[in-house]
Amino acid sequence: PVKVKKIVCIGAGYVGGPTCAVIAQRCPDITVTIVDINEARINAWNDKDFHLPIYEPGLEDVVKSCRGRNLFFSTDVDKAIQEADLIFVSVNTPTKKSGVGAGFAADLNYVELATRRIAAVANSNKIVVEKSTVPCRTAESMRVILEANAKPNCRFDILSNPEFLAEGTAIPDLHNPDRVLIGSLQTPEGLEACQSLADIYAHWVPRERILTVGLWSSELSKLAANAMLAQRISSINALSAICEATGSNIDEVAHAVGHDTRIGPKFLKASVGFGGSCFQKDILNLVYLSESLHLPEVAAYWRQVVEMNEYQKSRFSKRVVDTLFNTITGKHIAVLGFAFKADTGDTRESAAISLIRDFQKERANVNLYDPQVEESQIWQDLSEASPELPLETIKKQVRICSSSMQACKGAEAVVIATEWKEFKEIDWEVVYQSMNKPAFVFDGRLLVDAAKLTKIGFKVVTIGRGEL
Ligand code: NAD
Ligand code: UDX
Fold first, then answer.
1. Which residue among 90, 108, 118, 218 has the greatest number of ligand 1 atoms within 8 angstroms of its CB, and so is best to mutate?
2. Of 270, 289, 291, which is closest to residue 216 (Cα–Cα)?
3. Structure ipTM
4. CA of 395: how far to CAs of 157, 265, 381, in Å?
5. Whether 184 contacts 191, CB under 8 Å
6. Are the CB atoms for 33 and 42 separated by under 8 Å?
7. In angstroms, rounded to a whole number, what is the distance separating the alpha carbons of residues 400 and 416?
8. Which of 194, 278, 401, 408 does the annotation list as catalytic?
C-alpha cells in the first residue's frame, strides 16, 4: 500500500479541524494541511493567540503541539490537493432546504463541489476519503464525477471513513476511539487504499479497533449509529412523560433499566430534547433513504424518533407556562444555557432555541446566559427561529446576560437548558434572594439537587419527575 506522507483535509469545521489536528499530532512523519473556502475560519485557526474558531476542551493544546510543524491551515485549496497523497472530504452536509427531498435528504452540493475541485486540479493518484456523513452510495457518485473529469493517468481510490466524535469530547474521543471505521471496495486496489488509511490510524489506535468493511456498509453504519443513539434518548424522553404523570422518577427508571448489561447505562439521560448538527439531520436522511427504497414502514419508524424529540421540547415549554399559573406574559424567565450540550459553543438544533421561541410567543421576557456561545450567534439563531419577527423586536424580549446571577436577578423562573458544569456550582441561596417569589426552577437537564432547592424555598419542576 501507498505510504501516505501528505494529507489534505477539505473543510476546517467541527470535524475536519479536530480530526486532522489529532492526526498531525500523532503522526509527526505526515504533513497535514486543513483547507477551507471560509477565510475567516482559516484565519481563526491560524490565530497567534489561539482564539480558535471552535470551542473544544483540549483542542488548543493539540493545535499548539503541531501547528507550523506538520499541521497547516490554508485557503489555498488547489495547491494542497495537488500536493496530497490522501484527501479527506469533511465539508458540511446539511438537510436540504428546498427541491426534491427538502426537509429530509442531505444537501450534497458541498461534497460535489469539493469532489469536482479534486478532479479539476489533481495531477497524480489520490486516495479520496469521505469523512462527511453522507447517504448510502455517495462514494459511487464521487467515483463517477472523479473519473469523468480526471486527467489521464490519475487514479482515485475512494474510501468511507465516517467520524464518530461527539462535540465537547472531540479530543478524548479522537485520542481513544471506540472504533475507527473504514469502508472500501473489496477490489485489490480498494483493499490497498484501505490499508494505507488504516496505517495512519495505527500510529495511535490499536489495530483491533480499526474495523474494515465494505463501502456501503460503512456509509450506512454512520447513519445507523446516530439513529440508534438518538432513539435511546427519544425512548427515555417518552418514558419521562409517563413519569411526570405517574409520580415515577425517570432518573431511577433509567438507572434501573441501564443496569441490565444488555441495555447499558449510557445515553439514557432524559432531557429537554436532543440537539446538535447530527442526530436530526442523519435520521431524516435515513428516513429519506427508506422512502426512496419504497420502505414506508421503515421510514415511519425512524421518523418517530424525531417527532418524539419535537414533542419533548414543546411539552417542556408548555409545562413552564402551565406551572407559572398559565401565563408568562411580561414575566422574566432566566434561561441558563444556549449551546446544544455542555462544553461546546455550537448551537445547531439546540433545544434552547425552541424554548426561547415558545417563551417569546407567550410574550415573556427572557434573560439568557451561556458561558461559550457568541452573542452574534444567539441573535442569528433566534431570528431564524422566528422569521416573522424583526430582530429589534426579538432584542426587546431577550437580554443576553454575562452570568447566571445576572440572568436570574428579578426573574420569576429559571430554566436550565444546557448541562454546563458551572450551573451545578450556582449559589442557589443567593439566587433565591434575588428572584421574584414564588421562585421556580425548571430543570431540563436533571442537573440540580431538587430536594436542596426545595428546602431553600424554590418550587422545582424536573423533567421526568411527577409531583404526585
Ligand atoms: P462545519 O460546517 O463545521 O464545517 C464544514 C466546513 O467545510 C465549513 O467551514 C465550510 O466552509 C467548508 N467547506 C464547504 N465546502 C467547501 C469546499 N468546497 N472547499 C473547502 N471548504 C469547504 O461542519 P462539521 O460539523 O465539521 O461537519 C462536517 C461533516 O461531518 C458533516 O457531514 C457532518 O454530518 C459530519 N459529522 C459531524 C459531527 C459533529 O459532531 N459536528 C460528527 C460526525 C460527523
Ligand atoms: C453525536 C454522536 O454522539 C456522535 O457519535 C456523532 O459523531 C455526532 O453526533 P453530538 O451531537 O456532538 O454527537 O453530541 P451527543 O453527545 O451525541 O449529544 C447529542 C444531543 O443529545 C445533545 O443535545 C445532548 O444533550 C443530548 N443527549 C445526549 C441527551 O439528551 N441525553 C443523553 O443521554 C445523551
1. 90
2. 289
3. 0.98
4. 51, 41, 12
5. yes
6. no
7. 15
8. 278
